Amino acid sequence: MYGGGYIFEEPNNRQVREEKIHDEPEKLAAFEDRIARGEKIEPGDWMPAEYRRQLIRLIEQHAHSEIIGALPEGTWITRAPGFKRKLALIAKVQDEIGHGQLLYNAAETLGKTREAMINDLLSGKSKYSNVFNYPAKTWADVTVIGFLIDAAAIVNQVANSKGSYGPYCRALERICYEESFHLKQGHDAFIELATGTPAQREMLQDALNRWWKPIMHFFGPPDKTSQHSEKLMQWKVKMASNDDMRNQFLDMYVPKIWELGLTLPDPLLRKNAETGRWEYSDPDWDEFFRVINGGGPCNEERLQVRKWAEEHGRWVRKALMKPTEKHTLPVA
Amino acid sequence: MLNNAITDLMTKMADDELIQGHRNSEWTGLGPVMEEDIAFSSMAQDKIGHSWALYRIIEENLGGRQADLFAFCRPENEYKCCHLVEYPNSGYDFSLMRHFLFDQAEAVRYESMLESSFEPLQQLSRKVKGELKYHTLHANAWVMQLSKAGEESYDRMQTALNEIIALAAGIFEPGKAHEQVLIDAKVYPGEKELYNRWLDRIYPVLVKASLNLPALESITPAYGGRNGQHTPYLAPLLKEMGEVFNLDTAANW
Question: InterPro entries, alphabetically (chain A) (predicted)?
């Protein structure tokens, strides 16, 4: 998991930064040529300040999503039913923390330290995927997350792994490899409930009903309202449009859900045979923005947990520091 | 008689690892640094994996109940874990010191079973020994590092050691009549012997870390767990652990 397609940004900062792109036209042209040729940009290479800033924001949010995303599932590790599920879930959530670590390292190559990123997460300045601001109420929620949220994240991450920034792409390649196992364990646990007792099926249907809206929100607002410039696409920071990724996800997974005799809480959900695109009801984008700005059911709880971890671990981090050591950024 | 004694021994080993693994897994997402989060998750998987392997030996070789049912559906007083593993994680200092003392005890125990007359245990010990090597390496490195990293950190380590030592000594609660049967049959060398080997193992590390081992004559080991008498922390842990599984123990999850 867990990077969503949506990169949050305070809208009022954009104008100024767009202008700065054109500071060094020759270097910029060479840089854009390299990207157009499919070359990867590496940490020591020249890059426009705006490219650096956008990437830090993207990778940082992705990293935060990994460590915050570990929380709703993590609370079910101690309750996972039976040895097989318990061991799989610990391993899976552990992987997510590991992904966070890889991604923070990738973002650090751009000049922002892990501590600075964590501080921005805790202060609310830096966001993470909205989907983790919803509660995991039952075991069935864990299977829905493990199957469908991971599946959605893979759509996004596979796309991003073909982007232009070398360290991020390499981190994503490894992440996607592990994610494909996560998807299998999520799918397996999901199917177990779907083909289980009536109570298990009911539990699963209930979870699916509650998670459908956050899942539809996962890839971000519709393209027609999305605030991101074409520049990000040209620079291969953003690799696919929100609607395209959402459509790809629906195409791959809605039939799998319907096949199991489960329903989705949207009477208008259907694939248009002529356009090949999925149609659906408006998934309440007001709620999406309300949640991303702190108004979701679990925003506060998630940050409180992270704050607890930061505060209680401070003495350990302090003890690890040596006065003679200087912070150096990783190269890749 | 011998089989009952072996079942008893393996149940307490398995219960220790299951509950310690549960506690380790509670660090997932909450560690002081991400790397420690990952380390405790790793050890949680190993511990829970060892307990599963032990329960399966009980099931397959000693006529015990199905491993999941045995692990997750017993009444509290049938658990044989020691009090040390039942305590909540508290802070990283407590968890780390517990990890150090517990894993050194595990290492000593499994090493003593490399020559066990009970074949399945002998085989399992060979596998587990390789994993425990990393657990003890991890514990030693962190205890050493934190004890040498300034006053606050040192004090925390010493305080944790003082708090935990009696609980840790409780790992080696004498096993009554069963134990002599196991010693005579060369299944393992007995708790008293393991306790002494454990002291030989932890002492040099504590000395290197400049930590003072409290006077052992003055502590009262926390016994009772091996007989099903537990701290108030175990019951809620078991309730949580079995919460989903016990919704329907006949269903597949």
Answer: Aromatic_CoA_ox/epox, Ferritin-like, Ferritin-like_SF, PaaA, PaaA_PaaC
